[in-house]
Amino acid sequence: MLKVEGLEKKFGKNTVLKGVNLEIKEGEITVIVGPSGGGKTTLLRCISGLTQPDNGSIIINNKYLYKDGKIAQKKDELEIRKDVGLVFQNFNLFPHMSVLENITEAPRVVLGMDIEEAKNKAKEILGFLGLENKQTSYPFELSGGQKQRVAIGRALAMEPKLICFDEPTSALDPSMTGEVANLIKKLSLEKSMTVLIITHDMAFATMVAHRILSMNNGILKEEHMYM
Fold first, then answer.
1. Which of 56, 120, 208, 215 is the most buried (most CB within 10 A)?
2. Which domain holds residue 26?
3. Strands of the 194-199 sheet, one edge to the other
4. CATH number of the domain that 188 lies in?
């Protein structure tokens, strides 16, 4: 589902990614752990199309997003980026929109989906996430765990092939770690979702991962298998 080859990225004189290679199979949950400043977030931003690498290639669902550091043609880039969902560390929900509106916005605006179709899809997703009774609520009325589930729902509404999580437990109470792990495993099992997670939380990583990689100083290393 995802292949990264020789990925390099510099910010000024600082080389953040140093020839990163990564391959993730369909339906696999891969977790990358490591210290701040090690390159994890930059790698995630490159994979999700938010940051362009200086060199290397990213292939998603057998299509190039970047090849030798160059972006795919614009029409292909937009199509490929739809295959990647990103759940931000601080959720980034629209505060002036209800839960239902947060989830229907991108399908309507980006995909041109009919409003009723978008609403029906959003309601189905909210049922999967256990938020059927929160359709008309606003973000300020939700707990941290509920906000995260809405953020996941917003990503799922675009029907991605790969969903990426940036520090999914960092903004939550520690007691929520198990619930988050169970939800991500449910995405993999019931939605056949391929998942990439970056985190500092090793306990969470061992709960959820099929594979754990460590990243430091722009280099991916060490691999531990969990099933």
1. 208
2. 1-83+160-227
3. 84-87, 162-166, 194-199, 29-33, 211-216, 219-225
4. 3.40.50.300
